[in-house]
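Hi everyone, sorry if this is the wrong subforum. Our group has a chain we'd like a structural model of before ordering constructs, and none of us has done structure prediction before. Sequence below.
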Amino acid sequence: MNKYPLIKRFILAGLLAMLAVAAQAAVSFTVQAPRQVVAGNKFNVTFVLRNAEGTNFQVPDVAGATVVDGPGKSTSYSSSWVNGKSSSSSSEEYTMLYKATQAGRLHIGAASIVVNGKTLHSNPVTIEVVAGGGGAVGQRDEDDVPQSRRGGVQYNDPSTQSTERAVTGNDIFVRIEMSKPRVFEQQAVVCTIKLYTKYQVSQFMPTKQPSFDGFLIEEIPMQPSLNNVETVNGQQYMVAILKKCLLYPQQSGQLTITSGNYDVNVVQYEQYRTIFGTLQQPVEKSLKVQSNTATVNILPLPEPKPASFTGAVGKFTVTTALKPEQLKTYAAATYSYIIRGTGNIKYVKAPELQMPKEMDVYEPKTTADAKTTGSDMTGTMTIDYPFIPQFAGRFEIPGGEFTYFDPETEKYETVAIPGRTIEVAKGEGAPSNHYRIQNMDIRHPATGDLGLRKAHRYVVDSWTYWLWYLVPLLLLAGVLAYYRKQLRERADVSRMRTKRASKVAQRRLKQAQRFMEQNNRDGFYAETLNSLWGYLSDKLTIPVSELSKDNIQAELESYGVDEPLRVRTMAMLDKCEYAQYAPELAEQDLHQVWDEAAAVIDNLESVKRRR
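Answer:
Right subforum, don't worry. Here is the predicted structure as tokens:
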């Protein structure tokens, strides 16, 4: 009788075939170590030999760390069949458990192992040891236990990431971090959204982004990747920065960054034990993760504000420039204010400039050149004032003041802008039409015979005398009638809301236009959507809290709005909502969206309620 049944012979033959293929695969000897650990904490360094069997493993001495346990050896095999072809791999892992004794840089030299009479060496690595850390008092230090027998999930140990273990909020989470808990209006605060995970992530999809109501946002470009290791509450996580941006608060009070929702696929491992070792097969698991919320207290800027303050918060300097230096009449020139510094440089308003009346001055042009530097923006704001001299001679461009608020000193600082003397030579040409139109209010006095005559006449005999009494009486009667009409209309709340609907919508669309000019897509779509909802609330006399797309459809039809206009209205609401909650997919031209929103409101305004 055979020692093994027939099925066991097939299994044994298959395993031997996989081992033969693994022997032919590329052999490598690498090291896996965290990039950063906390002084006083323990950490693992794993040396991995792939597709070979090794002997005489030698680990290097590590200055600045003590050996707690190891080397612990584990062996694994894996195989796959694709299109009738088999492939397999094997690995031997030698795990060392160290304890960092002091802050600084920890250098781990090359380990060695002998494979088929040949010595292989791993690459040396450097680990940054930071000060601080430590677990809670009375808490069991799992690093004292060999890695294969620990109870918790370890980010660098697939044997602890089995499918039998439930994935908890302690294993993977998203955190919103603010650089400061308290700032002034227009003072930058850095918002960082991080993913912390002990598992490999195969797919990450935001389903609801955090909202930044009350802030202007400056994105800091970056590519998310799980290439850092951080320690949180004594546990180590792989960390990826999902988003980092500068936030500039536009109002005082307590502002909150709402939580975001994410769909995440993590990789766990199904483990199979065989007579040759443990086989591991990766399995994806889908999770829904929600981030925390973050709150910042925004302090109002001190009162009273200086007259020369135009909203600059940070630290700035101001210089002036004139191009060209040699001026001639009727030739274009430019006088510039150049503001340099760190702060909300992109959002500084242009200071007023009083040019001599002999100059034909045009609208100023503002150019910002700024980039993020750590926790704020640094750059240059240039305000160009184009002008054309109309007369030759010497003229004075008066100086001025530029005031900014310094959050560090919590005081307003004023910078004096020096004046400038300019010399204008005679040039060729004629005064510009723009200058003549601006100065048409000054005329030469009339001369010659003006046709004046001397006459005697009683005033009371003139009809204009009595007209001076009659006109005020008629005006008073008209004012009283208008006032009573206003009282009747204001008593009708529904009619008043409908009457002012267009004005409210136009005012909000003006704010959306400002965001459009700043190319702030998030603010533009939010203001446009708010304008449409507010207008429909007033037009249909329905509170905003009770508005929905279904009752809007019904109320518009009942009001008397035809079907094409109803379809345009609902499509506009859908477009703004889609762009607000998925801004990275909203690529439509903002000018076209603004024009379409204004057209919808104008068309709705012309519709009269059906009797």
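For your construct planning: The radius of gyration is 38 Å. DSSP finds nine helices and 31 strands in the chain.
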